[in-house]
Description:
The chain has about 600 residues and is α/β, with parallel strands linked by helices. Helix content is about 65%, strand content about 10%. The chain has 18 helices and 10 strands. The strands form 2 sheets. Strands 6-7-8-3-9-10 form a 6-stranded mixed beta sheet. A 4-stranded antiparallel beta sheet has the order 2-1-4-5, with helices on one face. Strand 7, helix 16 and strand 8 (about 540-545) form a beta-alpha-beta unit. Helix 5 runs antiparallel to helix 8 (about 220-275), helix 6 packs across helix 8 (about 220-275) and helix 17 crosses helix 18. The longest helix is centred in the middle third of the chain and has 54 residues, at about 220-275. The radius of gyration is 35 Å and the shape is elongated. The structure holds adenosine-5'-diphosphate.
Amino acid sequence: MKSFKNNFYMLRLIWKACPWGVICETLHWLIHRTSELFYSVFLLRFIVKAIENGTDFSKVAMLLFLVLAYGVGTGAFSAWHWNWYRRKVKLKIDEMLLQKMYEKAVECDLSCYENPEFYDKYTRASSEILQRGMKILENCGRMFSILISAIISIFVIAAWEPIVIPIVLVCAVCSIMIDKKRSKLKYDCMVDTTPQTRAQDYIKRTVFLQDYAKEMRLGKIFFPLLNQFDKSVKQALKTTRHYYGIEAWLRVSRELFMSFGTYLVAQGIIVFRYIEQHAYNLSDVVTILNAATVLQSNVYSLSWNMSDFIENGLYIENLKTFFEYKPKITENENGIIPQNKKHSLTLKNVSFTYDGQTKPTLKNISLDIPEGQKIAFVGHNGAGKSTLVKLIMRLYDVTDGEILLDGINIKDYKLSDYRHSFGTIFQDFKIFASDIEENVLLHPTQNADDEKIARDAVTASGLMDKVNTLPRGMKTQLMREFDDEGTILSGGEFQKIAVARVFAKQSSIAILDEPSSALDPISEYEMFENMMKACADKTVMFISHRLSSAVNADIIYLLEQGEIIEQGTHSELMEKGGRYAEMFEMQAKQYRESEAQE
Ligand code: ADP
């Protein structure tokens, strides 16, 4: 029953994307199946009967001419559909499914990426999505045409030899049951090998993606990865051998069943009744034998297609769970829209534990960020600074406590508008294969105003001198995925593009998560100067493990193991002589030593 529901779910989606595709595919299979019936049962019966009765040849010739016209017409339609239109339909279906999948993937909570069960589902759905759409349409088209053809042949047989029908049908039911078991085995095998597929995908990514290219060449990390690859292939082979061994035996028993039950018994009865009992004349026996053969071939195909139908149903279930996943953090369509003004932020006793972790990453954080304040979160790597930013951006929801924007819980705001109040750069920001302008705006350039915003932002981030040396300036394509002549900038220059995104986004709060980690001290200083100028009227939340970059902040929060252990201005904290002062001195000393060495 679930298979029916799932196949119909997918057919509905396909119908919405391309109704003519569904109509033409069904028509194609209907012509294919009914032509077989028409030629071998009805046409042959007409001819044999005409010979038996001595019918006028002109009538036979007229019919043959009509048959020829029908053959040419249906042949032309099938050739057009199969060789051209079907390809267009496939592209449309793939586009619809991929679009739906991408939309869902973007909507999913960030925590989904850390949940192996969900990630496995996503991996399975994405690896299958391009093959299944058309397979499902083809399979349903075939099944429908087989059913129609089988029903007609049942009526034909019932007129002479009804006993043949239950024999063929019992065999069909048995082989369908065997096929159901085979489909389940194939699916289970795919599920059991998903962790290996995931591991192999990861290894493929590390080898092909530029992000990993430097480390791969510098060290010997490739070898342990290769070992993992080898291990996963062996494991996948072992699992596959187990499932497909059983599947092979089921296939053999099914073949025996079909051949014995339908071909031997059913046809044997008809031939015996004709020869021994003279139960019908030649035209009748030709009709019944051919109708029985068509019914058998339909049952045989039905059973094959049923196995695909059930298998498709299982895969669709996967896709459906993914498509129907309800994110925990939702858009909140009726939520409040933040006013286009400066904002204050308050964190009240905020604690947070990542899914699957037992220890909280943030513990009892309380702070007030008045509008326009420049604050810095500092602390060692792993202290919880980025997690704090993710909570403020509502990429995750707090486990305990609450975050308020202008005194209202951030969960009460419309999500996209709330997030739009922030301009953020993350440590692990990404540059897209697009031009500089779009990389800064993070949307297509629509008019001259957009161009100006992007240019001003690039100037503020200190990258304009470099952009001016590029032949296509702001229109320079970055990365080489879509353009062999795309430009690759240095790590620091890419970081400036990420900083420019904050300037370009006209939001009143800027969050900068380690924006200067790839810059040398002089560039870092310049970037700060520019940033402070460009963000003069914004609230700025600044995250760094380099304490030197926080000295000008209005207030500094020092985090350690998920807690705020000190807070105050730079001079207050230095005067206090606590952990901040100790870390600051240590970093300054390291910096002086490395300067001296250079
Ligand atoms: P910081 O920005 O101060 O370097 P993070 O906020 O990135 O620190 O990380 C704080 C702690 O949370 C670290 O121990 C890190 O391992 C852990 N952590 C970060 N992201 C995740 C995650 N997605 N799942 C589980 N633990 C995480």
